[in-house]
Amino acid sequence: MAPIYVGRVPSAGGQDYRDLARSLQGLLEVARRTLVDEEEPTELVARVTGHLRCELSDVVAVHERFEIWDHVNVHRGVEDYLTRHGSVGSWFGMTSGMMRPHQDLLSRLAMPAPGAMGRAGSASYGTVATGPDTDTEVVTLGLVATTAPGGAPAVIGIRAEREFGPPYGELEILAADRAAASATRTEIARLTAEQNVFRGQVLSFAESEHHGNELASFLPRIPLDAEDVVLPDGVLESIELHVAGAGSLAGELRDAGQHLKRGLLLYGPPGTGKTHTVRYLTGKLTGTTVILLTGRSIRFVESAAALARRLQPSMVVLEDVDLIAMDRDFSDVSNPLLFTLLDAMDGVGSDADVTFVLTTNRADILEHALADRPGRVDLAIEIPRPDAACREQLLRLYTREVALDGETAAVVAATEGVTASYIKELVRRAVLAALRTGARPLVLRQAHFDEVLAEMSAEHQSLTRSLLGGDAVPGDGRPQRAQHRPRR
Questions:
Q1: How far apart are CA 77 and CA 71, in angstroms?
Q2: Closest CA to 92 of 53, 51, 52, 144
Q3: How far apart are CA 142 and CA 128, in angstroms?
């Protein structure tokens, strides 16, 4: 196109006027083409409306927002849907620039995008975990043409928003008829539940550094033998009966009109084996979905309870629950997380095969409301400091990979009042003491235990000894409960 003159009109002269005329003619042609392009649908819009056989203004969109950690399951549900109902072509994306925050796909399609900006491009993909050691690709921004369950044309769109505000995902179904779009969404939801990769897995909810959103992570399920859990006689059996025994009779309990949801409280001093007992249950219940919440992640109990309800049989573990569930008699300040916890536990139906396992070092200060209804806490089990018989078993357990010279009676007697964690650390240090001598093969002798016991009992080790549970608390170690005050 000839250059466009801006400014002073050229001086009289035939060539100058001809150049100006050509420039104005070129400008008018550009304007005409722009107006035509705005009136004609873009390639991207034409691809969508051509499949749906309607104008863009007649397209109906049905939305379903999902948590970003559930992206893998929604993607699997959509892929299963496409396998069953077929697709026209493959996933495609948009080359029309960055989407604005909270802008849906239909709105983006309706935006003017002349020329190359309106062409269909490649879908965007990301990688998400499907297990402790496996992952897969998922669509993070894309559309695919398919048919609704009744045979009407439909377009499925997925987008994952991570750039603006708390991350979230959105499933969008486009169709010429709302019923067709809704039926497609309903079928995808059903298949998403069937294809859920969390089912039967061990999960933890954690806080991400990105906007503080909740993320579900996979953890390995490590099997433990009953011999690896040293508790007083009958304690482990009672725990198993309450958790696994009720689950094995789920149908019969429901038929008898009895509640199936159950709650278990494990309490006792730090280091006595509460977490170890939970690990044993996790390893034993191989077909159960286990969700672990610790520390600040307990604030995600609503999400965890909802997931547990979807993926039953399931077990929700809340460690150190006294951090949020202190009895209101002990404080004038109510903890909002306490009410979130109670609501989440109550929100799971009584006939759901869900177990809530709570652990605490301070059962004496727990909120009474936890035990007000069946299904919150039905069984409270103390995990005490090991007695002599248990200390003997623990020594045998922690020294099973090394040779042990002589009897353990002296060590058992010298460790009265300690915890399992203390004995485990005692054995580790005794092995180090034996290694330092240079003698091979490695043999643990009484002299090694005597050296370590003296070291761990020294004044400068008092904090370590306390942290490991080496100092028994005089009396019951429990504060007196304040006089009862009416609930606020």
A1: 10
A2: 144
A3: 16
Q: Are 329 and 481 in contact (CB under 8 A)?
A: yes
Quickly tell me which residue has 């043409």 as its tokens. 145
d(CA 235, CA 435): 37
Q: How far is 362 from 388, CA to CA, in rounded Å?
A: 24
- The two beta strands, 153-161 and 168-175, are antiparallel
For the chain, what percentages of helix, strand and coil (3-state, to nearest 5) are there? 45, 20, 35
Phi/psi at 135 (5° precision): -150, 175
In Å, how far are 39, 109, 112, 263, 406 from 371, measured between CA atoms? 67, 54, 60, 9, 48
Residue 238's pLDDT is what?
95
Going by DSSP bridges, is the β-strand pair 379-382/289-293 parallel, antiparallel, or unpaired? unpaired
According to DSSP, the residues that pair with 39 across neighbouring strands are none
| Separation CA 37–CA 31 (nearest Å) | 10
DSSP code for 136: E
Residues 256-279: tens digit of each pLDDT: 888 888 999 999 999 999 999 999
Domains, in order of start, for the chain: 43-194 (no CATH), 217-382 (3.40.50.300), 388-467 (1.10.8.60)
Helix (H, G, I), strand (E, B) or coil at 256: coil
Name the nearest CA neighbour of 215 among 206, 226, 224, 223.
Answer: 206
DSSP type of residue 488 = -
Cβ count within 10 A of residue 134: 9
Return the SS3 of 443. strand
The answer, as to whether pTM is greater than 0.85, is no
Question: DSSP letters along 388-430, please?
Answer: HHHHHHHHHHHTTTSEE-S-SHHHHHHTTT--HHHHHHHHHHH
Cα 204 to Cα 293, 298, 323: the distances in Å are 6, 10, 18
Contact 169, 213 (CB under 8 A): no
Provide the 10 A C-beta neighbour count for residue 173: 26
- Across 148-234, the runs of DSSP E, i.e. the strands, are 153-161, 168-175, 202-207, 214-219
Residues in Cβ contact with 406 at an 8 Å cutoff, skipping those fewer than 6 apart: 445, 446
Other CB atoms within 10 Å distance of the CB of residue 388:
12
Range with lowest mean pLDDT among 14-23, 55-64, 314-323? 14-23
With 90 as the cut, is the pLDDT of residue 335 above it? Answer: no
pLDDT at position 372 over 50: yes
Tokens of 110: 């309706």
pLDDT, mean over the chain: 83
Calculate ∠ Cα 240-293-126, nearest 5°.
120
354 membership: H or E segment, kind and range? strand 354-360
Closest by CA position to 188, among listed 108, 70, 287: 70
